[in-house]
């Protein structure tokens, strides 16, 4: 019996699944092929398989998401790409469905759980409404060795002015892969990776993690690679926090956060190339046995920050910092350095070490500045 080839349902008399053909597209929303994304994905998984072709799932104009969409049970729907007719699709909170996933019982909009692969997200989303009463709300999560991915110029935006919940979470061996451009803003935390999660990206992918109440990017026992431009700004607690994790940054700008720029702690291992860390109250901290290699980076103070501690770089508690071909620039007026007692490098007890090969240590007018504060510092 042939059910309905127009909607892609398989020929049950013949068994098997239909192959995805080039250009195959279904729609979601009022008057479309499916009423909601969950119904669409359940049907597509039962009907199709792909040898490399992408099936497009197009969200119709005006469709509002007020429900969860979950891929579970080892399903692979990575051959599906979600796009939309509107530039941005609204997500109305709280949701009408409320399955919680992950160790911390996250209530998500999109989720991949139990060794599953969510469709490629190629649409921007803005949350509206109220998250009150939601359990650890998150827009998109992957847990238990699952995968989520984005492709295109994507913005994932929380409720402006409320800034609660998480933009994207990956946990328990799961992966977030981003391609082209990903912006996550107006959440409590932008991207949160914990328990052996991985963040990876295409060679030209740009990240913008901004205006979140806590950190733009937070890693706990996880790994992240950013391979192109990335921006971390306007975040409340800081741009990036790395706890017992591995992080590789290329051409990152960590600036104008209200707390720290980068916090590297608990035996983390970080490699930085051509990065700019500037105008954060606590610019750069390497703590608790962590190791950082910084090459061709700039550490700057270009605006007066009354909340700053005066530490351009802090290395402490058995940590190691290697600086090669880097610039340090201080705020300067006339012949006076601002922020009394500013420390260029402050390394304290427990055999913290700094290996330096500075290109320049200058004020913003180009005047060479000596290293101002070295406390119990062992040079290599």
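-> sequence recovered:
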């Amino acid at each position: 019996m042939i059910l309905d080839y127009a909607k892609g349902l398989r020929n049950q008399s013949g068994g098997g699944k239909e192959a995805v053909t080039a250009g195959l597209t279904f729609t979601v929303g009022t008057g479309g092929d499916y009423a909601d994304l969950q119904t669409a994905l359940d049907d597509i998984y039962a009907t199709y398989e792909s040898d490399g072709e992408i099936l497009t799932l197009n969200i119709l104009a005006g469709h509002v998401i007020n429900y969860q969409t979950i891929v579970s049970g080892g399903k692979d729907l990575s051959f599906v790409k979600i796009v939309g007719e509107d530039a941005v699709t609204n997500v109305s909170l709280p949701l009408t469905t409320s399955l919680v996933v992950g160790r911390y019982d996250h209530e998500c909009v999109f989720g991949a759980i139990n060794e599953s692969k969510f469709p490629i997200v190629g649409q921007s989303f803005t949350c509206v409404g109220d998250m009150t009463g939601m359990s650890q709300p998150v827009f998109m999560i992957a847990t238990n060795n699952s995968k989520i991915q984005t492709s295109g110029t994507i913005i994932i935006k929380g409720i402006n002015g409320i800034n609660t919940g998480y933009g994207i979470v990956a946990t328990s061996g799961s992966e977030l892969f981003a391609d082209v451009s990903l912006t996550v803003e107006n959440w409590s935390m932008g991207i949160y990776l914990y328990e052996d999660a991985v963040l990876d990206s295409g060679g030209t992918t740009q990240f913008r993690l901004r205006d979140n109440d806590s950190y733009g990017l937070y890693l706990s026992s996880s790994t992240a690679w950013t391979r192109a431009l990335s921006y971390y700004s306007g975040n409340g607690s800081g741009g990036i926090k790395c706890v017992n994790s591995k992080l590789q940054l290329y051409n990152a700008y960590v600036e104008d956060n209200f707390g720290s720029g980068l916090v590297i702690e608990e035996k983390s291992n970080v490699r930085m190339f051509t990065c700019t860390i500037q105008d954060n109250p606590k610019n750069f901290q390497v703590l608790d046995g962590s190791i950082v290699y910084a090459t061709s980076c700039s550490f700057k103070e270009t605006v007066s920050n009354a909340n700053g501690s005066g530490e351009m770089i802090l290395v402490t508690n058995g940590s190691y910092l290697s600086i090669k071909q880097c610039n340090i620039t201080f705020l300067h007026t006339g012949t006076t350095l601002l922020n009394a007692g500013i420390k260029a490098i402050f390394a304290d007890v427990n055999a913290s070490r700094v290996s330096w090969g500075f290109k320049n240590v200058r004020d913003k007018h180009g005047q060479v500045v000596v290293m101002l504060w070295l406390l119990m510092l062992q040079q290599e």
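Confidence is low (pLDDT under 50) at residues 1-14, 332-344, 346-351, 358-380.
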